Amino acid sequence: MQPIRVLIQASDPVKRAGIVSLLRSAEQIDILTEGERATADVLVLAEHSVGAAQLDGVRRMRAGVPDVPGPRCVVITDRFDKQDTLFAVQCGVSSILPAEHCTAARLVVAVVGATKGHSMFPRGLQSALLNQLHDLRENVLEPNGLTLSGFARRELDTIRLIADGFRTDEIASKLSCSEGTVKNVLRGAMQRLGLANRTHAVAYAIQSGALV
Fold first, then answer.
1. DSSP code, position 140
2. Which of 125, 157, 180 is the last residue of a domain?
3. Are 67 and 85 in contact (CB under 8 A)?
4. How far is the C-alpha of 193 from the C-alpha of 176, rounded, in Å?
5. What is the pLDDT of residue 24?
6. Are residues 11 and 87 in the same domain?
7. What is the pTM of this model?
8. Spans of the chain, pLDDT less than 70
């Protein structure tokens, strides 16, 4: 099994040493030096207070290597503003752990989970994230015909019918438009989201939760 490569960022050297000690209990984790940051699978960010500035630094780090997915981030902190929860997720944060409850077992679970798409958030931050997603959908996306998945409403209607096995002419009939419009809608979604074909579009919609 390939080890999980972890980069630790902490302005306090004592805090960093503590995290290193916690992670060394796990054989599957390899702790990187600063010079190896480009190869990290997971970034552990540990600061007394984490806000928009620190999160933006995570976002910039993840975007630093073109065409390579950036590392997911686990945050350990004493203070985190719940208003930044959605921004944290957008920056690649998969888990936020209160420092006072950060045991070796909990941290290892968060790091391993980050590589598998799992998340850990305190209950209060979970509620904040759901509320912020609701506001985003209601006030920004829906008025512009968009969904959280990135598909426009008509694109999603088209892809849902493709997933149900309908042909282009049948989709056009159901959506009361021309076959050319169906093809243009689908082509626009595929180009914007980097999708290769109809099957890829359906798979992407399912993976994003847009189709269940």
1. I
2. 125
3. no
4. 25
5. 86
6. yes
7. 0.66
8. 1, 64-69, 140-142, 144-150, 212
Residues 12 and 107 in one domain: yes
Question: What is the number of residues in the chain?
Answer: 212
User: Using CA atoms, how far apart are residues 51 and 187, in angstroms rounded to an integer?
Assistant: 39
Same domain, 90 and 120: yes
Q: What's the confidence (pLDDT) of residue 61?
A: 83
- The range of the structural domain enclosing residue 13 comes to 4-125
Q: Looking at the structure, tell me whether residues 101 and 195 fall in a common domain.
A: no
Closest CA to 93 of 43, 46, 51: 43
Q: Say which CATH number the domain at 12 has.
A: 3.40.50.2300
pLDDT tens for residues 82-135? 999 989 988 889 999 999 989 999 999 999 999 988 889 988 888 888 788 778
Alpha-carbon distances of 134 from 52, 58, 66, 144, rounded to whole Å: 21, 25, 32, 15
Bridge partners (DSSP) listed for residue 44: 8, 74
Helix and strand element counts for the chain (H, E): 9, 5
Q: CA of 123: how far to CAs of 55, 65, 79, in Å?
A: 20, 33, 15
135 domain residue, yes or no: no
